[in-house]
Amino acid sequence: MLPVSDHLTAALSGLPLTLSPVTVACAVALSYLLALAVYRLYLHPLAKFPGPKLAALTSWYEAYYEIVLKGQYSRKITDLHDKYGPIIRVTPHELHIRDSRFFDQFYAKNQRLDKEGWDKRFGSPHGLIATVKADHHKRRRAAINPMFSRRSILSFIHIIYRHVETLSARMQEFEARKEPLNLSLAFPALTGDIIMDYFFGFNYGQLEHPEFASFHDAFMKIGATGHIATQFPSIFPIMNSIPDFITEWIQPAAKPLLQFKRDQWALIGRTLKGEDIKTNDAQRTIFQEILDSKLPPEDKTHQRLADEAQVVVGGGVETTAFALTIACFHIINNPRIYERLHKDLVAAFPNRADLDLVKLESLPYFKACIQEAVRLSYGLSARNPRTYDKPLQYKQWVIPPKTIVAMTIPEVSHDEDIFPDSYSYIPERWLNDPKTSDGLPLEHFLVSFGKGSRSCLGINLAWVELYLTLGMMFRRYKFELFEADESDVRVAHDFFIPVPRLDSKGVRVFVTSTRD
Ligand code: HEM
């Protein structure tokens, strides 16, 4: 086989030219890449949008920030907005908008938006949050919507109270042993037990586990894997084809989640055969609700139900746990806030053993403390993509149909025009019905639960968990931080969910019972 230079020489000297298959393949690949580059940079429908050329050229730009630098593209995108303006092209096929006032209009006012991309991220493409088509999503959501009404949550509240009391008992145990309690581990165990009880009708007793073993690590790892899966969508099918013991050997943190997947697969199988797996005294479970719903048979297959279980349980664990951790860190770290809150709680509950949701909800300062924690916990740190089958107007820009357009919750939470000193925890900003400079209610910009038809389904459950857990904690106990600082709650990585620095040991606290 002649080297390329010899082919050239042969061609120039008029000798008959025989190209090897490898040379031809290289030439074709090179021409294709060149043509693709020209198309993406100059002819693509998004070519006129601002942004770095490299991002327009290739998804490897995104991959570098997400995979190599571990969840840093969202942060980079914020820098790019500073440079290029409110709308930018962040991958060859995706635009990103930073404009808090457009958030509601985009997600809530446009009906029938599809959501491209999340179906590849978690390995559960048929779960609600990952469903691509607006129509499929609508019927799947309608099937479980009633279970997430305030009324339904209240019919389950006795189980939430029980778990909150278990957490209180664990606090006393740590107090007696004079050992620090790791809130970053305790909260996912709490929220995990609650959502398991609600979805399946039993829990794994994670809150009673000595070290609060939970799905926490596994969800973190899944979040990080999501960045790889976005670039290489076959990763989850490949992982699913590998025996679990090998995956556990490669990634020990995945063990509880694989266990959960195996268990729920078996449980769903038993239920489909007519067995009742519920062991708690919940009136009804989400799982029963799906099975009894009018969903078509293809939405009640074993695999679809397994996907739904994973995303609903997943949605219910880390988000609320992180909001609880944020609230606790800041309240404990600011004695002034703790004292004011504790005083309100003592006035509302003279008997420290009492706890009542409605009374807790009537305390304005307490509500403000929770709102501020929700603002700073974001729910999701990921870009939240949508596509629309018609052109979309944004300012002077006409966005072509079916373009992936995303916005990001943390950018609204840190809009300094709306939330001055936005990285600081200031509950007072929520008091006395506050408005923005242009007269809109501040609450309008609390977007951590998302907006529109795909906004958080678990919002009512989340609020109840936040009120009862924090009410119990700050009425009954006083805390002292142990080797924890703001970097243990400040987001350092976007793994779909917000994640603090990777070497954080969590927010650890010493606990003392209050005497008043
Ligand atoms: C502070 C707590 C929570 C926050 C901040 C939060 C935030 C969010 C956000 C931002 C979304 C995505 C919205 C979108 O795509 O536009 C979402 C979706 C979802 N969340 Fe939550 N969440 C919380 C707690 C919960 C809880 C306790 C559950 C209970 C199961 C839950 C279940 C879900 C589900 C099922 C979805 C998908 C909804 C859909 O696609 O229709 N979340 N959540």
TrEMBL record:
This is Cytochrome P450. Keywords: Heme, Iron, Membrane, Metal-binding, Monooxygenase, Oxidoreductase, Transmembrane, Transmembrane helix. The chain crosses the membrane at residues 20-43. The keyword tRNA-binding does not apply. It comes from the Eukaryota. GO terms for molecular function: heme binding; iron ion binding; monooxygenase activity; oxidoreductase activity, acting on paired donors, with incorporation or reduction of molecular oxygen. Belongs to the cytochrome P450 family. Heme binds at residue 456. Its cofactor is heme. InterPro entries: Cyt_P450 (IPR001128), Cyt_P450_CS (IPR017972), Cyt_P450_E_grp-I (IPR002401), Cyt_P450_sf (IPR036396), Cytochrome_P450_monoxygenase (IPR050121).
